[in-house]
Amino acid sequence: MTLPRERRGARASAPASARASLPAPAPTPGPVDGPEVLGRTGPDVGGRWHDESMPLIAPTAEMVGRDAELGLLDAALRRAAAGETASVLVSGEAGIGKTRLLREFRARAETSAAVFTGWCVDYGATPAPYAPLPAILRGVLAELGEETTAEAAGPARAALRLLLPELGPVDRAAVTPDGLREAIATLLEAAAARRPVVVLIEDLHWADDATLAMLSFLLRAVSGHGVLFVLTCRVDEVRRGGAVRSFLVEAERARLLDRIALGRLDPVAVRAMVEALSGPVDDAVFTRLLDRSEGVPFFVEELSCNALGPLPESLRDVLLARFDRLGDDAKRVVRIASASDAPVPHELLADLAALPDERLDEGIREAAAAAILAVRPDDSYGFRHALLREAVHDDLLPGERARLHRAYAEALEIRAAAPGACLESALAYHWHQAHDAPRALAASIGAMERSKASYAFSTAARFGELALELWDQVPDAAAAAGIDRVSLLRRLGSILRNAGDGERALAVVNLALDEVDPATSDRGVYVRLLRDKALYLQNLGRPGAAELLAEALAAMDGLDDDRLRASVLNLLAGRHMVAARIDEAIETADAAYRIAERLGDHSQMSIAANTRAASRVHRGDVEGGLEDYRLSWQRATDDSARLRYYVNYSDVLHHLGRHREAVRVAEEGIARARTLGVERTTGSILTQNVAEPLLQLGEVDRAEQLLARDLTFRTHRIFRVYTMATRMRVLAWRGRIAEARALLAEWRETMAAVAPFERQVEYSLLSTELAIHLGAGEAEEAAAVIRRFLAADGPLIGHASRLLLEAGWVVSAVRADGRMPDAAALAESVRTAWAALPPGLRPEGWSVVLTALLDGAPDVLRAALPVTDEDDMPAAFRVVVRLDLARRLIHDGERAEAASALSAAREIAAAIGNARLQQEADELALASGLSGEPAAPALAELTARESQVLDLLAEGLSNRQIGERLFISVRPSACTSRRSCASSA
Fold first, then answer.
1. Angle at 342 between CA 341 and CA 348, to 5 degrees
2. Within 13 Å and on the Cβ side, how many CA atoms surround 497?
3. Which of 141, 517, 567, 751 has an alpha carbon within 20 to 30 A of 685's alpha carbon?
């Protein structure tokens, strides 16, 4: 390793103030032991040695984030079984999940292969010779049996006694290393002749020379004999020039090993792991856990029970174990680095350490070799794990910690004078840790403003909160901060909102309102605070936003600020729109537009046109609404207006059935939100606006990926309501009904509370219930949801179109259950409601499909088939219409056409991944004898039919009712599903 000083030459002298505030350098240390790995080792109750950094009891949570790696191991086993060379090295840092991956692979491999496992063991400076081999050999001997073992090993069997003393005394003079190698290779080949063999060797980084030599031989000797070797190793902790590194380099150069590198888990996988360990997790808690664990599974598991609390003692001991073995200079370097929450440049570390160059370099080298510090390409040093930095920093004495941070701050202030230094964040952090409140306050305000300007809203919020914490500690704080307290609170509230912390934003704006007297304070400030609070309530999905906006307008009497008035009117128009008060929304948006037009405020004009556009579409004036959207885009001269356009326009396109276009518009918006640093807020609702049409199009994999990523962000509560509703529908689509119902139980109260003042949440809740009942095959329950929707009071808005289309699916399901009167009555109610919608809210293709499903006649269903295949048609209806047609054709004896329709339905259902539709198609195919499988003997068919008739008689059905349930086709076949065999007449 070449250190930065060695590349660039000697360092400059450290500032006296920096050096004086630190303890004096320790004497040059004596020899230092090699780096200790994460954790110590000790024997478990069965005699096996284990790494104490890993849990002794296997975690119960399902393994996440390793599907690709598991697939590679499965593929390697298949290659080995086919006689190809297949040996794999699984590499990764401590705690990354190598052992867990092997446990999962072993469980899968044992169904088809003999699996033998051995462990290399850490005995300190002297590795245990041949440590993994005894356990492996005992497994091989048990697999082969004594007689086969003796026959396979032949005279070389005596060599096995070197490793297995239970076989008897060994004559060492008669045993050679070659004999031992040959005996082991021969036994593995004999075992592989019976079935494939998998040899798992864990913790290769602790292997001794003899084990490495044996492995080098075996990888070559048993190649092509159905044996797969899987080795695990912490490659980053293997010393350069050491025996393990040489073995790995040679094995990979000779193509004897394929490498699978395990990386840290991404946020999606971390959230899945946390929820599997401890259930649903709050967004703020998850964000903190993600920051601290950095995606290392072991750390995730340790922190999952208390992500916000101090480090568990057991974890702290593990983290500090190798730090404790460092020499004094290395410890000094690591302690200094621990005071920075960012990588430390070489020059700064050198100034603060105040060590001679050679000792500094050796200290850094030792800390890096111990996998504590990492040398970065920009000549800075950072900790390999954030938790390790936290543990070392927490281990400092209070006075030592304060002196160290003051030294950092003083050294950074010298550097802050340079142009473009951008050190406000570091200065705020270090002055605060040094307990210098005035300097920390000024720096935190500067850090907040710089982070906000860079769209780093979470960072800006952290420093704004720090400034608020310090305010009361500083005399004449406003002068020190350069801003008054109410202005700070307003700015911080906006930053917190953009960071996705709606609760804290609301708390901050309430603090500001408590400090403002409406009678004596600046009314413009008061109105802005009311407006902000209304916005935060809206984001949290709480009532009262419209009332606050009305209060703000009333407070503006006599106030000459039309720009502010236009912004308040626009927010109020938006509240009217989502509450389905469409006329009021249009009237209020018109008023906002007129004021903004007079002022030449294009941004507010765009927002007003946007709200008016959505309102017109919901009222059925689709052409007028689309024209307003074109106007909104023309006037959208700033990012706020453009993002609102992307959100509302993509949503309206989706509800008009223009799904591809909706996806395109929303994806453009996400890209812009990401650029502006608001991916976790506006980007979240835009993600929902992509996922929902993707689900309608049957692209469920993409929808799942988007939703999983979005769930790793902290976002507004109201946005999460929509995301979770779509997630429930995805789960129902996949057939994971229990999970969908559990989520609905968790979120129903929230959704029901929001629905009265955000009408589209009511529709979202109905659609979610409907999706779950249809996914579970509960036709009657689904029909009850539609009846409840049709009986509800209040005006219908654009979202009603989709619910009515889905009602056609429900009618088909009720008819398939054999409840003809119920299906007919429901169909008539849906038909009436559909006709009552404005023409613009009845897409032509949807009308064709809905009419076909409500009617159920073969000719009408046939005519709908080409429409279902149109690109923007909801994909599920391609299956639903074909299933309905197939049922009717089977009933009418048209088996050839029925077989064609049913085959297409099965193919489409599988392609779009809808579990319930796949099941229904398969059941109908089996029950009708159109599955393509050999027909059962006639006697068996008769017995099955008789059995079903008896079941129906036991229910008390009449002959006519039984006839309706059990339609008789041209070629009778066994009915295995009442729903699949129900008449569609």
1. 110
2. 22
3. 567
